[in-house]
Design brief:
Layout: E1 20-24, H1 34-50, E2 55-58, H2 72-80, E3 87-94, H3 100-113, E4 118-123, H4 130-137, H5 142-147, H6 149-161, H7 180-183, E5 196-200, H8 203-212, E6 216-218, H9 227-237, E7 249-257, H10 261-279, H11 289-294, H12 299-309, E8 312-315, H13 317-331, E9 335-339, H14 345-359
Helix pairs in contact: 1-14, 2-3, 3-6, 8-9, 10-12, 13-14
Length: about 375
């Protein structure tokens, strides 16, 4: 059987060490609008599809002016209308923020729009601060939602497969679009169902993904110190399932390529200033490189930025390639999912193009 036929395992192109994919935060820069950011997302998705990137994921965030990806399902529907082959998915939906039935309905609808190319990546963090999480969940008992994640995941899986056991309170409830349509008189239903992925930045989801035999995505781009321990735990915990017979792990990587090394540094500093503001409770639009260059960083801010940028692979295309190749070798990741964080959409778009050229990816 073709190992890529399950929709999980990607195909490596050109001289890339592993399949390459895209993680989009739909970032909004100062002086730009959310409309601008979403138009950029369409352009990046079209480029990614044309150049052989395997999948394109968007991440759920809330109450962050510089991140316009609060509604992954809505954005994915928009991207589905502008693409025809690339896999589209969530990296991820923060399941404790939602009723499992709602997510089953949303991604069943996406699967009907783009049959056979939808991924459902799930996380247990809120994707925001505590107050916003409380507003989303209508409760301030936030730990309860995270602790119940395995139960929520099991419920979501039952809705997606329409297989609650007899006597279950939800046994007569069906996620539509979904398998129930194939059992209705005259019903014909797509054989596809979005594969589940678990996302994480620590060991909890790594172990759970391994135990359940699910593919795993690790957030190396903001938790690099935990990457190898989490991947080791995932592989050690892995039990074959109907979905996967062997572990499959991708890692999210911050990577930005420009023609000039100094320009890459300017762009990365602007993204780093944005992170400083976010981590100190002052989220805003992504600043311009000029604003970052004029900013007087405190000693504490510089310490944070040096630590943050140490895990951002940036520079000329050949420099970024060297960094990505080394990271793939060190971690043994099965796939690299690149996120290019910069103020301007044109810089992000160009980065993905430069790396496609550097690795000799297909050209449409």
């Amino acid at each position: 059987m073709d190992p890529t036929s399950d929709g999980i395992r990607g195909q490596r192109h050109g001289s890339a060490p592993v399949p390459l994919s895209v993680l989009d935060l739909v970032t909004v820069g100062a002086g730009r609008t959310a409309t601008d950011a979403l138009r950029t997302s369409v352009e990046i998705a079209k480029l990614a599809e044309a150049r052989g990137y395997h999948r394109y994921w968007v991440a759920e965030h809330h109450s962050m002016p510089g991140v316009a990806s609060s509604s992954p399902a809505v954005i994915l529907a928009h991207l589905a209308a502008h693409t025809g082959r690339i896999r589209l998915g969530s990296g991820g939906v923060m399941l404790p923020n939602h009723a499992p039935l709602v997510i089953a309905e949303q991604f069943g609808t996406l699967e009907a729009m783009a049959p056979g190319r939808v991924d459902l990546g799930l996380g247990r963090a809120p994707g925001t601060d505590g107050a916003t999480a409380a507003a989303l969940r209508r409760t301030d008992r936030l730990n309860e939602g995270a602790d119940d994640f395995p139960q929520q995941l099991a419920e979501l899986t039952r809705f997606l497969d329409d297989d609650f056991p007899d006597g279950h309170p939800y046994g007569r409830i069906h996620a539509v679009p979904g398998p129930v349509q194939s059992t209705s008189p005259g019903g014909v239903q797509s054989p596809h169902r979005p594969p589940l992925w678990l996302l994480g930045s620590s060991g909890f989801s790594a172990r759970l993904a391994g135990t359940l035999g699910l593919p795993f995505a690790f957030a190396h781009h903001f938790s690099a110190q935990n990457t190898i321990p989490a991947l080791d735990l995932y592989r050690e915990s892995f039990r074959p399932s109907a979905l996967l017979d062997a572990p499959y792990a991708l890692i999210g990587v911050s990577a930005l390529a420009t023609e000039d090394e100094n320009e890459a540094r300017r762009q990365v500093m602007a993204a780093a200033l944005n992170m400083v503001r976010l981590r100190t409770g002052r989220p805003g639009l992504v600043p311009t490189p000029e604003e970052a260059a004029a900013h007087e960083f405190t000693e504490m801010e510089r310490e944070f930025i040096n630590s943050w940028n140490a895990n951002v692979i940036h520079g000329t295309p050949d420099q970024v390639r060297t960094g990505l190749d080394d990271l793939a070798k060190r971690t043994g990741a099965d796939e690299l999912m690149l996120t290019a964080n910069a103020h301007g959409g044109e810089v992000r778009l160009r980065s993905y193009e430069l790396l496609a050229n550097e690795y000799g990816l297909p050209s449409a």
